[in-house]
Every structure is written in structure tokens, then in C-alpha cells.
Specification:
The protein has about 375 residues and is an alpha/beta fold. It folds into three domains: about 150 residues, Rossmann fold, CATH 3.40.50; about 120 residues, no CATH class; about 70 residues, RNA polymerase sigma factor, region 2, helix turn helix motif (Rna Polymerase Sigma Factor, Chain: A, Orthogonal Bundle), CATH 1.10.1740. It contains 15 helices and eleven strands. β1, α1 and β2 form a beta-alpha-beta unit. The termini are far apart. The chain binds NADPH dihydro-nicotinamide-adenine-dinucleotide phosphate and magnesium ion (MG).
């Protein structure tokens, strides 16, 4: 029996996680859930899974959740950042799904690492911001890390069982998002609704915009660097619009191993929940004969400047990926609020990176300082151009 905390239970990954968990009540028990703004959804989840704890953002949300649960389930409701760290490191929990979006996920995910948990990592921003520190905590506390991001989960499945012997390259696939064929001149005017209408995956709004700019793939290159201890030169991105091949590992003998499946996050979630065993996930079997042709293309860096910025940030190292991540979060939020054009997202990130080169990132305090400085700077840049 695995005992779970689901951080970000009310989001896209959280909901898919609980869908898989509900299929296997004999294997998984939910001990704690967290949400942020979607209190009604969290209440439904608490009533369905009867966790011991639920965490929300503030006292007002906690009061609302308590009222919704009164007389139905005995879940203890807590709130705030410390409570998130607490449910990520409870002694009775062995597995933590880290599915909060953005930098807000870093502290609770680190708490899970320090607690020596099996971490199912969806929150790629933790690794982008503080990859070195994070991997050290995982090693020091004998935590284990299983990737949820579909590409990294695919790479994990295609890697040798132990070590990296014989591996030449990691090939991360990318769908290219909704604007793969949109004339570049038209990209300035695309709306958040168009950007969030991903052709293959249903995801939260922030990662959907990241997919449209391909910053998502850039963050994933940095994520792959840390997860698989692989330098930027050995990580390639290939556009594969059908999202059937989720990523590949190339070996020195010329073999390329790919993991395939329908694009549904319940596959990597079920894989990581049950690893090293396999369980049914609810995903329909892949019908290759019915699938359209599988196409692979090189990404166009003029169309997707964010991908180039992320490779550069990885090569620059130190606090630069944290600056990239924070500037991206601020720019994407401004785009989603109709305060910034789509093409300007990359411009804001590039200008922020330029004004904050080589930030130190040896301690968590330094990482958060780089994150904070980048947010201030990105907001100033947005203010100046809008
Ligand atoms: P969603 O926006 O759907 O969900 C985010 C979750 O985090 C929600 O539970 C939300 O609560 C909670 N949350 C938001 N802000 C805060 C905060 N400041 N403090 C605490 N909790 C917060 O995102 P996704 O599920 O799409 O993505 C989650 C993570 O997984 C991201 O890091 C993303 O990059 C990664 N990922 C997602 C994939 C996908 O298919 N969706 C694929 C691969 C990776 P509430 O909704 O209640 O406000
Ligand atoms: Mg992904």
C-alpha cells in the first residue's frame, strides 16, 4: 500500500492522479491533498478520498473548505506555505505527487526530498530553478525521483536500468503547440484562448502557453539535464506533432529506444505511481494502424525564440535558469491577462536575462533572490513596453 500526498490535487495533473488512484483502492491511500483557489473541487476530492489533511492558500479558503466538509468527512484543514511543506514530509506518507504549478512548488517539493519520499515530479520549475540544490537533497536524504513529465517519463523508461553506459543522446519530442504553422507575422496577435487550445494535450493554462512558445520544451531540456545528468550538447529537441512518441534515448550502437502511447498523462502518472510494477491507467490502447503518419521535424528557433533562451540559460548555469523561469512566469501571467502580446513573452525574458547575468545560486536564499529580482525586473520591462 502506497500512502500519498498530492500537492496541486485540483489541477490538471492532480485530477489525473486521483483518477488513476481511484482505480486501485487496494494499492493507494490518499493521506493529504492540496489546492489553492478551487475550493469546491478540493471539497469534492476530500469527500471522495477522505484524506487526513487538506491544505489551501489562506484562512478564508480554509473556513470555506471546512464548511463544505462539515458533517461529511473528518479531514483536518490547514493553510499556508508551511502546511504544504508539512504534508509533503509527513512520516506516514511515502509518496508525494509534486503537481503545484510554478515556483510555488519548489519549497514543498524540497520538503518531500528532505523527508526521503518517493517524489513523482510534475513541477519541472523546481528543477529549473534549483536543480543542483534539489538533486543534492534527493541524494542526501535517499529520496527517489520519478518523472511525471511525459518526455522525461519516456526517457526514464528507455534508459538502461542502471547507469548511463552506452547512452549517446536524449531526444525530447515536442508537439510544436498550436502555432507550429501560423505565419510568424500573425503570432503577435494570438489570444490566450488560442494559445491554450493545445492540439493534443489538455493541461493547465500556464504550461499550455509554455507549450505554444516552446518555453515548455526549454524548461524540459533543463529538467532532463538534471534528472539524467546529461549536458546540453547531448539533449536534442525534435518536433513530433502527433505526440505519440513521447521521447527517445539514442545509444552508441545506433539503437534508438522510444516510448509510445496515446497522449494522456495518466500513463506516466500510473507508471510512476506503481513503479517498478505496472498498473492499468484508464488510457485507451494505442492503435498504430489508425494513427496518422508519425512526423518528425527540426524546431525553427526564429519561430520559437524561448527554446533558444532556455538552452542559453542552461549553458550559462548558476542562477540564470531561475531568472529565465521567473521572467517566464511573469510574462505568461501578463499574456494570460491580456497585458502583453504573445511574441513579447520572449522579448521580456530576453531583456530580463540580459539585465541580470550570472546570479549566484549556491543556496536556496540566493535562488529565491534571483527569482525575486527577475520578477521585479520583468514587471518593469512589461510596464515600459505596454
Ligand atoms: P494547473 O494549473 O492545472 O494546476 C496547478 C495546481 O497548483 C492546482 O492544484 C492549483 O490550485 C495549485 N496552485 C497554483 N498556484 C499555487 C500556489 N501559489 N501555491 C500552491 N498551489 C498552487 O497545472 P498543471 O496540472 O497543468 O501543471 C502542474 C505542474 O505539472 C506544472 O509544473 C506543469 O509544468 C507540470 N506538468 C503538467 C502537465 C500537464 O499535462 N498538465 C504535463 C507535464 C508537466 P487551484 O487550481 O486550486 O488554484
Ligand atoms: Mg512535457
Amino acid at each position: 500500500m502506497r500512502r500519498l500526498t498530492v500537492l496541486g490535487a485540483t489541477g490538471s495533473i492532480g485530477v489525473s492522479t486521483l483518477d488513476v488512484v481511484a482505480r486501485h483502492p487496494d494499492r493507494f491511500e490518499v493521506i493529504a491533498l492540496s489546492g489553492h483557489r478551487q475550493i469546491d473541487r478540493l471539497a469534492e476530492q476530500c469527500i471522495a478520498f477522505a484524506p487526513r489533511f487538506a491544505v489551501v492558500a489562506d484562512t478564508a479558503s480554509a473556513t470555506r473548505l471546512q464548511a463544505l466538509l462539515a458533517g461529511k468527512v473528518g479531514t483536518e484543514v490547514m493553510h499556508g506555505a508551511d502546511a504544504l511543506e508539512r504534508i509533503a514530509s509527513l512520516p506516514e506518507v511515502d509518496t508525494v505527487m509534486a503537481a503545484i504549478v510554478g515556483a510555488a512548488g519548489l519549497r514543498p517539493t524540497l520538503a518531500a526530498a528532505r523527508g526521503g519520499k518517493r517524489i513523482l515530479l510534475a513541477n519541472k520549475e523546481s528543477l529549473v530553478m534549483a536543480g543542483g540544490l534539489f538533486m543534492r537533497e534527493v541524494a542526501d536524504h535517499r529520496a527517489s525521483l520519478l518523472p511525471i513529465d511525459s518526455e522525461h517519463n519516456a526517457v526514464f523508461q528507455c534508459m538502461p536500468a542502471a547507469g548511463r553506459a552506452g547512452v549517446r543522446r536524449i531526444l525530447l519530442t515536442a508537439s510544436g503547440g498550436p502555432f507550429r504553422r501560423t505565419p510568424i507575422a500573425d503570432l503577435a496577435d494570438v489570444t490566450p484562448e488560442q494559445a491554450c487550445a493545445h492540439p493534443n494535450w489538455e493541461m493547465g493554462r500556464k504550461i499550455s502557453v509554455d507549450s505554444a512558445t516552446m518555453m515548455n520544451k526549454g524548461l524540459e531540456v533543463i529538467e532532463a539535464h538534471w534528472l539524467f545528468d546529461t549536458p546540453a550538447e547531448h539533449i536534442d529537441v525534435v518536433i513530433h506533432p502527433q505526440s505519440i512518441v513521447h521521447s527517445m534515448v539514442e545509444y552508441v550502437d545506433g539503437s534508438v529506444l522510444a516510448q509510445m502511447g496515446n497522449p494522456d498523462m495518466r500513463t506516466p502518472i500510473a507508471h510512476a505511481l506503481a513503479w517498478p510494477e505496472r498498473v492499468e491507467s484508464g488510457v485507451s490502447p494505442l492503435d498504430l494502424a489508425a494513427a496518422s503518419d508519425l512526423v518528425f521535424e527540426r524546431p525553427d528557433l526564429d519561430r520559437f525564440p524561448c527554446l533558444k533562451l532556455a538552452f542559453e540559460a542552461l549553458r550559462a548555469g548558476r542562477g540564470t535558469p531561475a531568472v529565465l523561469n521567473a521572467a517566464n512566469e511573469v510574462a505568461v501571467a501578463a499574456f494570460l491577462e491580456h497585458r502583453l502580446g504573445f511574441r513579447a513573452i520572449a522579448d521580456v525574458i530576453a531583456a530580463t536575462l540580459e539585465s541580470l547575468p550570472d546570479q549566484p545560486a549556491d543556496t536556496l536564499e540566493q535562488v529565491f533572490a534571483a527569482d525575486a529580482a527577475a520578477r521585479v525586473r520583468a514587471r518593469e520591462i512589461i510596464g515600459a513596453i505596454t
